[in-house]
Amino acid sequence: MNTKSLEIKDFIKRVLYHLSNNTEDTSCTLIHTDEYPKSIDAVKLNFHLVILCNKGKCDASVGHHNFAIQSSSISIIPPHTVFSMKHFSEDFNAHFLLFKSDFVKKGFVKSDIMEELLFINPDYPPIFDLEENDFNDTLYKFEKIKYEIENQSPFCIEVSRLYILQILYDYNRTCEICLLNSDKLINRQYQVMYEFRKLVDKNFHKLKTVKEYADIMYLSSKYISECIKNQTGTSALSLTQNRIILDAEFLLKYSQLTIKLISNKLGFTSTSAFSRFFKGIKGISPDNYRNKQEN
Which residues contact residue 36 at a Cβ distance below 8 angstroms, ignoring those fewer than 6 apart? Predict the structure, then answer.
């Protein structure tokens, strides 16, 4: 399968499209945008993307997680993970920090420690709301990185690397605090939702109905649906369908696979069944969707 992850330069051109097309590719850059970016249906990156949202909001998907990126939040999108961003509000305003793993690994921190800092647990949505002081502190670090990169001052690479390291430590600390607090509040419905989403992420190419997942979990479809609705605000069926669509979009955009092979890969009994499913969700056929991306 010929699918590749976007490089930093490609992401800047395709998503932050208001920037100059002659932007040099680099292992680290920071962009502030007060214009909402182009919607991303499905993409994989070859770098880490940190989004600090100053104002406004948008919807995002990373793997099986669906969440809102909104004012005073920070999100880290790990490399080589299918994700999407769409439905940007008109007042969307954010900083995008893009860097490759090798950029931060060249510092003085041991590689095993850096691997832990860069690891984003796929079991949880990679988004956290920041308190005002924490947000202002993080914003200061983002602005310092932008200043160092733009001015190319002596030791700008080393200084930028240190600020990124601080941001990663802060993110991991926030993550640990949130998980410790949430462990005390986890209820049965949350556990059901959590297990269901993990199963969907692992089996979406084979299982298509809530009942199939319910049988694995030894629960009724009705109970699972109630848990998912109460915990996420959406239906269990929508979660399964959205996960399939996310990979379908990615394969249609970035692979050379035929519609038939994509249909087989996603576990559909026929190309026509896949086409009906895709059109029912997206309002456009797989062929037309692919052609639209190429034009």
Answer: 56, 58, 88, 89, 90, 92
